[in-house]
Specification:
Layout lengths: L1 E5 L3 H12 L3 E5 L3 H8 L10 H10 L3 E4 L2 H6 L3 E4 L14 H13 L4 E5 L7 H12 L6 E5 L9 H6 L4 E4 L3 H11 L6 E4 L1 H32 L3 H9 L20 H14 L5 H11 L1 H13 L6 E5 L14 H11 L3 E5 L4 H7 L4 E2 L3 H5 L4 E4 L4 H4 L3 H7 L4 E4 L6 H6 L3 E3 L5
Parallel strand pairs: 1-2, 1-4, 2-3, 4-5, 5-6, 7-8, 9-10, 9-12, 10-11, 12-13, 13-14
Helix pairs in contact: 1-3, 5-6, 9-11, 9-12, 13-14
Bound molecules: nicotinamide-adenine-dinucleotide.
Nicotinamide-adenine-dinucleotide binds next to helix 1 and helix 5.
């Protein structure tokens, strides 16, 4: 099938490449020329494990191409995916500027029947909105359909998530369109759910908000554990054995960050308010999450007192392991809090350093965890990269000036850390 993906970011590039790998002819379009030039030169604009090899293979085989031209992109395509960003506006609503711009561009170049698929995460009703924009701006009176096909991939395991999704949700206005999408996804042999457009749009928000709720819930329990002398990892384990609950997303820590959960929970909150529905459940989830870093920062501050001029080493900057994405990363919030108190901050992340250099000012960028530890009064783990789990603790401790170790992701055992001479502080253990 001829496919065009508009927006060549974390979602668009990965899904476009996977569609090509399944034998389709795919053109990925982006308005940022630098990104397209990099891809044409075989360089990846984002870090995602396994992506470079898959892109190279499909480009060499002639199934995957890149362009900045929407008109070129949609000419041959039967199905056009919209995979542009939908960041939050100041009031928390999803900003649909990019989706609207793409819909308008598609309209101007529409020459024959197309299926336009919203893969971006968009509030319920956006399918209808996209349809109206295209009807308003199309130059030729040609037919088209608008479909919702939300994406559930996770950065860091995006290729596997696209190849083996738990489910494929396809929200369609009619049976005919459903068949085309079913054909496209059939080679994956995964569960597919055909719904109306509005339900598909809401499935994405409901899923992310539910996962965010699990995270905030366990963090709420962690707060109680700290006061009550209990251990949240044991509590979570005990809960997770219950098949109705499950063990995933019950890791207490600094809360959820990244480009999806914070914005999607806020957007759903706005949707609920728009429909005048009580959203206090979601408000509590968001409030709990927003207090994670300030709470942890207070713990760091009280142990380091006074913080000014103290050297604090931060291990991990990406919002989660196996990605270079720093959007809404907890590290940025924590570093801001530390710098407010005039700490001297050293940082290291296995892959997010280039992105971090563009954002962070007045911090010392280090080559590895040991360089971060050199002369530090305290170390803080913010992102649970595997390489931090296997550090030589004696070497780390000996190169530090102090002995405080704050584990924001509970990746070490207290006994082991204390044996290595650290004053160890983690989450949810009294
Ligand atoms: P991204 O910022 O990485 O990529 C978006 C791309 O769209 C950028 O390269 C940008 O240059 C391009 N773009 C913007 N306007 C354009 C236009 N008018 N024409 C052509 N290209 C344009 O964003 P992302 O992380 O890939 O997310 C895309 C959407 O998918 C969002 O709605 C997001 O919520 C959703 N989503 C993201 C993830 C994730 O893990 N990142 C997972 C599931 C769903």
């Amino acid at each position: 099938m001829n496919v065009c993906v508009i927006g060549t970011g974390y979602v668009g590039l990965v899904t476009g490449t996977v569609f090509a790998d399944l034998g389709n002819e795919v053109i990925c379009v982006d308005k940022v020329r630098k990104k397209i030039d990099m891809l044409k030169a075989g360089k990846m604009p984002i870090y995602e494990p396994g992506l470079r090899e898959m892109v190279r293979r499909n480009v060499e085989d002639g199934r995957l191409t890149f362009s900045t031209s929407i008109s070129k992109g949609i000419r041959k395509a039967k199905v056009i995916f919209i995979a542009v960003g939908t960041p939050p506006k100041a009031n928390g609503e999803s900003d649909l500027t990019a989706v609207e711009a793409v819909a308008r561009d598609i309209a101007l170049h529409l020459g024959d029947y197309k299926i336009i698929v919203n893969k971006s995460t968009v509030p319920v009703g956006t399918g209808y909105f996209v349809r109206n924009v295209i009807e308003k701006y199309r130059k030729n009176d040609v037919e088209f359909d608008v479909v919702s096909n939300p994406e559930f991939l996770k950065e860091g395991s995006a290729i596997a998530d696209c190849l083996y999704p738990d489910r494929i949700v396809i929200g369609v206005p009619n049976h005919h369109v459903a068949m085309a999408l079913l054909e496209l996804y059939a080679p994956l042999e995964r569960p597919m759910l055909i719904t109306d457009v509005e339900s598909a749009e809401l499935i994405k928000y409901a899923s992310n908000a539910f996962l965010a709720t699990k995270i905030s819930f366990i963090n709420f329990i962690a707060n109680i554990c700290e006061k009550a002398g209990a251990d949240v990892t044991l509590v979570a384990k005990g809960m997770g054995y219950d098949s109705r609950i499950g063990k995933d997303f019950l890791q207490a820590g600094l809360g959820y960050g990244g480009s999806c959960f914070p914005k999607d929970t806020l957007s759903l909150l706005c949707t609920a308010k728009k429909f005048r529905e009580d959203a206090s459940l979601l408000e509590a989830v968001i409030d709990l999450n927003e207090d994670r870093v300030p709470r942890f920062a207070r713990q760091i501050t009280s142990q380091l007192k006074p913080v000014a001029k103290k050297v604090v080493g931060v291990l991990g900057l990406a919002f989660k392991p196996n990605t270079d994405d720093l959007r809404d990363a907890k590290s940025l919030d924590l570093i801001k809090e530390l710098k407010k108190k005039k700490a001297l901050v050293k940082v290291y992340d296995p892959v997010a350093m280039n992105n971090a250099r563009k954002i962070l000012k007045n911090v010392e960028f280090c080559k590895n965890a040991y360089e971060v530890a050199r002369g530090a009064d305290a170390l803080v783990v913010v992102t649970e990269w595997n390489e931090f789990k296997l550090l030589n603790l004696d070497k780390l401790r000996q190169s530090m000036r102090g002995s405080l170790f704050f584990d924001g992701r509970n990746i070490y055992s207290k006994e082991k850390m204390e044996r290595a001479g650290f004053q160890y502080v983690c989450i949810g253990k009294g």
